[in-house]
């Protein structure tokens, strides 16, 4: 955890953005499935693509597919099944590696949940093809641990709203966790808010007119 102090200005800015987004969007459960292993697979399959393509890959594998089946599947067969997600050969290797990590817990999600969050995060980051964003998504949505997810939407939204966003994933992650008290439901919801807002308004070429952040956004109506 980064121990650098957070300025009151940054803390107010971050809380203000989330407050405005909560007021506009209301509460919702963001991840579209509750099955832990499906979430783990989805967190890998959605890398460098959209959820629609990742979901097609999950459908091809079968909604009830068990980790042991993925472990036993031929690599080439797995790759073809997830073709719709793009980079399917690499993602097949990643799914195998993640499944092997899960096998170390005997595919028992309760055994995973009994482990310390920081230990789990280090383990996940050591798995081939799992970086910070994927690890944190797995922690929050599949395992139920409080770990803030950073993505391109988070960077774009907060940069436009005047935050000096750290270039390092870990420093941005730690900044958010220093401002927003650790809570799994809150972290999952806030990541969902940023994705929803990024998809609806904060595009590379933003739609500022109806944006709920327009009054506080430093980048509003700037030509990108």
List keywords for this structure.
single chain; 224 residues; mainly alpha; 58% helix
Structural overview:
By secondary structure, the protein is mostly helical. It has twelve helices and no strands. The protein has helices spanning 8-25, 36-45, 51-61, 67-72, 75-81, 88-103, 109-113, 117-125, 132-143, 152-160, 169-179, 184-200. Helix 5 (75-81) crosses helix 6 and helix 10 packs across helix 12. The longest helix has 18 residues, at 8-25. The chain is globular and about 55 Å long. The two termini are 34 Å apart. The relative contact order is 0.15. The mean pLDDT is 95.
Helix content: 55-70%
CA radius of gyration = 18 Å
Number of DSSP E strands: 0
Strand content: under 5%
Helical segment count: 12
User: How much is the average pLDDT?
Assistant: 95
The profile of the biggest β sheet is: none
Structural class: mainly alpha
Distance between the termini: 34 Å
SSE order in H/E notation? HHHHHHHHHHHH
Regions with pLDDT < 50 over 5+ consecutive residues?
Answer: none
What is this entry, summarized?
With 224 residues, the chain is an all-alpha fold. It has helices at residues 8-25, 36-45, 51-61, 67-72, 75-81, 88-103, 109-113, 117-125, 132-143, 152-160, 169-179, 184-200.
